[in-house]
Design goal:
- The chain is about 75% helix and about 0% strand.
- By secondary structure, the protein is mostly helical.
- The chain has one domain.
- The longest helix is centred in the middle third of the chain and has 26 residues.
- It is elongated and about 50 Å long.
């Protein structure tokens, strides 16, 4: 959870520091950095989903089932975002 907060906070600090005077962010100028943040946020989603799956179990160890269910939810989130970007570009 701390990792997620740190990644999102650092993204907002970075975006605020490089924004244009009109408040927009030129994504194509900072393409590599934006892709890096997207990957870090995706890793954060995986970590949070594994954490939530593991918190449901009663043992102190994280089971293989918790890891796989966390990865499945994160993968479903990724597929949802890809489909939204594909079908959103047709309208």
């Amino acid at each position: 959870m701390i990792y997620t907060v740190l990644v999102i906070t650092s993204f907002f600090i970075w975006a605020f520091s490089v924004q244009e005077p009109d408040g927009t962010l030129d994504v194509f100028t900072y393409k590599e950095i934006v892709i890096s943040y997207i990957l870090l946020i995706f890793i954060a989603v995986i970590v949070v989903m594994i954490s939530f799956s593991a918190s449901k179990e009663e043992s102190s160890k994280i089971s293989k089932k918790a890891i796989l269910s966390g990865l499945a939810v994160a993968f479903a989130f990724l597929i949802l975002r890809v489909l939204m970007s594909i079908y959103g570009s047709f309208s």
